[in-house]
Write a structure and sequence with these properties.
This protein has about 140 residues and is mainly β. The protein has one domain: Metal Binding Protein, Guanine Nucleotide Exchange Factor, Chain A (Beta Complex), CATH 2.170.150. The chain is built from two helices and nine strands.
């Protein structure tokens, strides 16, 4: 994974440490920017209230209050839980220009953010996030 310019992650581990802590599929998505297949992730259709955290470092990323049904095959949110929870960087892979979403704490890949798609959300943004990048902590 190429480094995010101008920022230092709060959680720093070697790639060996990440490989030991994450399963092979988790490592591929979180550390190598792979994408899980659509409609296969555990949180795609989840309606449980709670907080979605980074699976790699536990940082709070999204609230269930901002999750919406986009029918795109991945969990979608219209806003991060905190403006500093995620980082956005340009992604020119796959022959297109997109905005990649990273965990601000450990710089792990989460997914991409899209704008102007016409979803009826307050921000007109869709944070399209891999389920395998997240861990849901249900509200008590």
């Amino acid at each position: 994974m190429k480094p995010v310019t101008g920022t230092t992650p709060r959680v720093v581990k070697s790639e060996q440490e990440w490989r030991q802590e994450l399963g092979p599929e988790e490592y591929a998505v979180l550390r190598q920017a792979a994408t899980e297949r659509p409609f296969t992730g555990e949180y795609t259709d989840t309606k449980t209230e709670g907080v979605y955290e980074c699976r790699a470092c536990g940082a709070e990323l999204f609230s269930s209050d901002t999750k919406f049904e986009s029918h795109c095959g991945w969990p979608s949110f219209f806003d991060p839980a905190d403006s500093d929870a995620v980082l956005i960087r340009e992604d020119r892979s796959m022959g297109m220009v997109r905005k990649e979403v990273l965990c601000a704490s450990c710089h792990s890949h989460l997914g991409h953010v899209f704008e102007g798609e016409g979803y009826p959300t307050p921000t007109d943004q869709r944070y399209c996030i891999n389920s395998i990048s997240l861990r849901l902590t249900p509200a008590s």
